[in-house]
Amino acid sequence: MIVTVVTPALNGMRWLPECIDSTQRQAGPDIEVEHIVVDGGSRDGTPDYAASRGCTVLTREEPDIGFAMNKGAFSSSGELIGFLGCDDALLPGALDAIVAHYRRDGRRWVVGGVRWMDERGASRGEIQAPPSWINAPILASLGWNCVAPMSTFLSRSFFEELGGFDRAFAQAIDYEFFVRALKREPFARVARTLSTAMRHSDAMSMDRNAAHLAELAAIEEQSAPRSRTRRTMYRYALKVWLNATNPRWSALKRVDAFRAHDRAVAPSA
After folding, report:
1. What does the pLDDT look like over 205-234, one tens digit per residue?
2. pTM for the whole structure
3. Distance CA 174, CA 88 (A)
4. What is the biggest distance separating any 2 CA atoms in the chain, rounded to whole angstroms?
5. Quick one: how far is CA 179 from the chain centroid?
6. Which residues fall within 8 angstroms of residue 169, CB to CB, at 6 or more apart?
7. Alpha-carbon distance 6 to 68, whole Å?
8. Are the C-beta atoms of residues 81 and 154 closer than 8 Å to each other?
9. CB 22 within 8 A of CB 87
10. What is d(CA 182, CA 108) in angstroms, rounded to the nearest whole number?
11. Domains, the chain, ranges and CATH?
């Protein structure tokens, strides 16, 4: 089976070697890996390096990440498609697990867990794939995306049926996409950690600016229940599950939030 990994890139050489290494290590007798890097005009040698490592390198004619991911996916030849940022990496055996669940469960998309890392390479906890009982209204009620994009693979036919990523969204583009996917059908859940992702100040998902908050609110209004009571019930049911099943991630998340609050209120020198 051919499995495609799409990586949008812009000056990603700090992280890209490990990203490419991690995808190439997935190849085996039953899996051929196609790695497509869609470059946005890097000046640090990213496209040349990716090409030298055997990746297919494309350029994006539009600046947004949705264009890059759609172009890579629609240009792919894989039966399954996944998305890794330059600062993401697949763990050993990840694609073996993805393909096994895809074939066994008959679902058109497969989701696993992710290990969050800081810039020093230290783990900030793992968050497993959401529970099998999650649906689109529940996910939209949560207010953030708990489906790890770097640990999610979809069949090419399902991606095409969904029409790819909605470019009207920028910072919450994966959240909106997974809510739409859940409206169609549930995923196959892999009960193991499949990838690592970096938490750093340049990460788009870490920037909760006004535009990001507006996108989150739009997703909730489009897909969460009309009843505010039901939204609250769904949100807290999923939050309780996530915190209970991912205790280290939950604890470190609170530590990070506390430190960020202290930095925000600290008097300037």
Report:
1. 455 789 999 999 999 999 999 999 999 999
2. 0.91
3. 15
4. 60
5. 13
6. 66, 175, 176, 215, 218, 219
7. 9
8. yes
9. no
10. 11
11. 2-258 (3.90.550.10)
